[in-house]
Amino acid sequence: MFSPSTPTAKESAGVSAARLQQEGLSRLNTDTESALVALKQAFALECQFYSSDGERLCRSCAALCRGLAHASAPSPPAEAVAVLLQALDTLDETAEQAAAFDFLVRELLGLARKLSGGTGGDSQPGSPHVRDPTGYGSSPPGSPNSRPTAGNAPPPGLSELRAADRAYERLAQCAASTPLRIGPAGSDLLVTQQELLFQHSQQAKAIGQKLMAQSGMAAAARDVEAATFYYARALRKLRLAGIADKDPRSLELKALIREAEAHAERLRAPVMASGGGGGGVGGRTAADAKAAEASSYSDDYCSVS
Fold first, then answer.
1. Which of 7, 82, 148, 245 is the most buried (most CB within 10 A)?
2. Nearest to 281 by CA among 226, 230, 229, 228
């Protein structure tokens, strides 16, 4: 008598992931919260059992990102950056996965540009202008093209700008050995690490400006110190992109750093004059706040001459 074989754990997980993904997508318009739970569970199963199947991983990643985009509309989904980064971390690094890798970095770049509101999109002179060739939500290899429409998104907030900062950081790392292919299959549209570093610099500068704008209202020394960090981060990325220190863009960033440092000193002066007792940011002294900020951001701080 014929006896069907017992499904392996991987096969069972694949069936469950496919069912959860289908259920999640079908409930997006009626019960977004439960739909996202199902899509996240499906993506977790794919990451655990199918890291060697780039098409499956991309399909599940795209489904979850579509759900996140639906939930965050009209703003782009900042949470989707972590999903795309996890997919890149999970994907087996083999030659057979080139199409999946190209898809993931293309989606990450498109999402970063949307999250930044265009602040990271100015091209470095002498390099090709980088556009979002497919738009966020384009389909993985072998799947139908399906994109959510977000409408007119509001200006990006700090969470969106910081998510874009993480995306540009990873994209520049991915382009360290070879340019990234950002066009459709068969095209020669590439983006280099130098271009991505320049875009990352623009992004970090935008975060610094956002922090300075809100610190002007709240008068928080910690925000100003964080802005100083991001301005210095932007300057460092310019240097890594080959922009000279005497270039007008580098000089502008140095001026912004000096201005932010002077502003932070002015905010700390009343606390220092009173002996620092009970003052500072969040119930701490100014020295405590500065030490905490340095600890959080010391990996990328650079001095300004």
1. 148
2. 226
3-state percent helix, strand, coil for the chain, nearest multiple of 5: 65, 0, 35
Q: Which of 121, 120, 123, 81 is nearest to 104 (CA)?
A: 81
The type of residue at 223 is D
Residues 271-287 have pLDDT tens digits of 555 555 444 444 444 44
Cβ–Cβ contacts within 10 Å for residue 26, how many? Answer: 12
| Torsion sign (Cα): 14, 57, 113, 297 | positive
Q: What gap in Å lies between CA 193 and CA 32, rounded to an integer?
A: 37
CA–chain centroid gap for 94, Å, is 24
DSSP code string of 183-211? SSTT---EE-HHHHHHHHHHHHHHHHHHH
Instruction: Report how far residue 234's alpha carbon sits from residue 243's, in angstroms, rounded to the nearest whole number.
Output: 11
Q: CA 41, CA 49: separation in Å to the nearest integer?
A: 12
The domain spans of the chain are 23-140+157-191, 217-273+285-305
What does pTM read for this prediction?
0.77
